[in-house]
Amino acid sequence: MMRFVDMHCHLDLMTNGVEIARAAHAEGIGFFCTTVTPVGAIDARERFSTCVNVRVGTGLHPWWIADGTCGDADVGLLEELAARARYIGEVGLDAGKRGAESIEAQAAAFERTMRTVFEHPLPGRVISIHAIRSASRALDILERTGTARSATCVLHWFSGTSDELWRAVRLGCLFSINEHMLATKRGREYARILPGDRLLLETDAPPQLGNPYRLDAIERSLTSTLEQLAQIRRVNAATLGAQIADRSTRLLDFAS
Ligand SMILES: [Zn+2]
Q: Which residues does the record give as a divalent metal cation 2 binding sites (predicted)?
């Protein structure tokens, strides 16, 4: 049983990710290592293969479509890997500043991938999803392809409308909450009203990709998010933390 599980962390984009993972294991901290390109996912699987407290997601972040790094061949590779992957992410849509121009290409890639995932069911599949200014569209895709019902869909750093929040709840989605989300009034309100059984913690670290990072910064962020969450929901932090850790441990199959 983990003490903390960071459900959305770019451990592979820290130059010292493996050292952090090893030190975290001793501290009872586990990770959902979300990746941003399918080639990166292959590398990360290899790099973290001996880290029992790390699950590597197969991902294609919408920004890497937006900036032209990833094209059709990458989407094809993503589909091929995702068909056999229990853990998928980071995937999704971004219609904000960085992604608006490529939103159609992102949506086509996301829908293709989610359809492939649905057609290749795997028990215990977990998907970490990015949706900026596009939660309705992302939920449409999850619903239309059937993935919302066949996998555990986790909306990372949710920033949609409250109608979109409740629609996601009805579809069975979970929500990974980080410090940035709790820094906004709307994020705190969502953290207050979400059903308790849908809550998870994340950091989305590191703030700067491709540099060394620190385990104590990750742990501090998780602790602070948990404490704020407990305060907002007027519950005991230790109890809430244990419930979230237990839920995350089961999702990432750390117990076995
Ligand atoms: Zn991320």
A: 130, 156
| Separation of CA 206 and ligand 1 centre (Å) | 9
Residue ranges of the annotated binding site are 8, 10, 90, 130, 156, 204
* Ordered structural domains, the chain, with CATH: 4-251 (3.20.20.140)
Expressed in angstroms and rounded, the spacing between residue 99 Cα and the centre of ligand 1 is: 14
Whole-number Å distance, alpha carbon 90 to ligand 1 midpoint, is 6
Cα→Cα distances 46→9, 42, 84, Å: 17, 7, 16
Which residues have CB atoms below 5 A from the ion given as ligand 1? 90, 204
Rg value, the chain, Cα: 17
pLDDT tens for each residue of the chain, 256 residues long = 799 999 999 999 999 999 999 999 999 999 999 999 999 999 999 999 999 999 999 999 999 999 999 999 999 999 999 999 999 999 999 999 999 999 999 999 999 999 999 999 999 999 999 999 999 999 999 999 999 999 999 999 999 999 999 999 999 999 999 999 999 999 999 999 999 999 999 999 999 999 999 999 999 999 999 999 999 999 999 999 999 999 999 999 997 5
8: CA distance to ligand 1 center in Å? 6
Signed CA dihedral, 29, 34, 39, 40: sign only: negative
- Tally the residues of the chain: 256
Which of 162, 206, 156 is CA-nearest to residue 181? 156
Interval between CA 12 and ligand 1 midpoint (Å): 11
